């Protein structure tokens, strides 16, 4: 059976309507948002991949030789209160707010695939050595691939204490924009002094930011 001319036009109209409905239909809320770098998502439903077991990570941890995560120094307060993470250095559980309680802190959000992070991390290492106990400096790996994080830190010779946060809970807690790197400056009482969504170009730049927003000169 052949369609009449009117029938063919009706069919074409129907196809166009269906295409428009598909185009405007709401997307699944669970679909990952595009990443800041245009390819990778900045958040994941879990903190680390299932294949990143303690056994598989052990040689990577040995090679990275990271400093131990800070021990709890108080109950912890502010937006990070109650958030626990895996310490990159040894796999122990860390209450981040409690670990930073009582002194100024610099918390750096980064990921293994982030180019500006790779450039910035050595400057943070240099600043941490300069600051000593005056300012706590901790990294937060914001991607579920913990194995790659340890490999990168060994490659960069950066041994700062850090935690694994593949689900980007710190980023959400401090209301940081979805970009990396991000540095969060935290007061001794746990409140956020400043969120800096930008890479540092030198240890002096880090020192200036800390002095400006936390009042600590080193």
What portion of residues is helical?
25-40%
Count every beta strand, where a strand is a DSSP E run of 2 or more residues: 7
Strand count, sense and closure of the main sheet? 7 strands, mixed
Strand order of the largest sheet: 2-1-5-4-3-6-7
Order of helices and strands: HHEEHEHEHEHEEH
Terminal residue distance:
87 Å
- Helix count? 7
SS strand fraction: 5-15%
**Which structural class matches the secondary elements?**
alpha/beta
CATH superfamily: Glutaredoxin
From the 3D structure, determine the CATH topology. Glutaredoxin
Task: Give an overview in words.
The chain is an alpha/beta fold. The chain has one domain (54-214): Glutaredoxin, CATH 3.40.30. 37% of the residues lie in helices and 15% in strands. The protein has seven helices and seven strands; from the N terminus they run H-H-E-E-H-E-H-E-H-E-H-E-E-H. Strands 2-1-5-4-3-6-7 form a seven-stranded mixed beta sheet. Helix 2 packs parallel to helix 5 and helix 4 crosses helix 7. The protein is globular and about 40 Å long.
């Amino acid at each position: 059976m052949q369609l009449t001319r009117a029938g063919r036009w009706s069919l074409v109209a129907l196809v166009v309507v269906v295409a428009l409905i598909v185009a405007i239909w709401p997307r699944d809320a669970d679909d990952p948002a595009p990443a800041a770098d245009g390819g990778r998502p900045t958040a994941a439903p879990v903190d680390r991949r299932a294949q990143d077991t303690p056994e598989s990570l052990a040689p990577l941890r040995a090679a990275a030789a990271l400093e131990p995560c800070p021990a709890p120094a108080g109950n912890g307060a502010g937006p990070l209160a109650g958030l626990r993470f895996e310490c990159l250095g040894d796999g122990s559980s860390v209450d981040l707010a409690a670990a930073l309680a009582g002194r100024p802190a610099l918390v750096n959000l980064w990921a293994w695939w982030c180019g500006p992070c790779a450039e910035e991390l050595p400057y943070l290492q240099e600043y941490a050595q300069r600051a000593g106990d005056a300012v706590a400096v901790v990294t937060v790996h914001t991607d579920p691939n913990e194995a790659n994080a340890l490999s990168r830190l060994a490659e960069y010779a950066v041994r700062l204490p850090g935690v694994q946060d593949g689900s980007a809970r710190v980023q959400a807690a401090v209301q940081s924009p979805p970009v990396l790197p991000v540095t969060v400056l935290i007061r001794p009482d746990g409140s956020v002094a400043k969120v800096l969504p930008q890479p540092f170009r030198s240890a002096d730049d880090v020192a200036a930011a800390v002095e400006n927003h936390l009042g600590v000169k080193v």
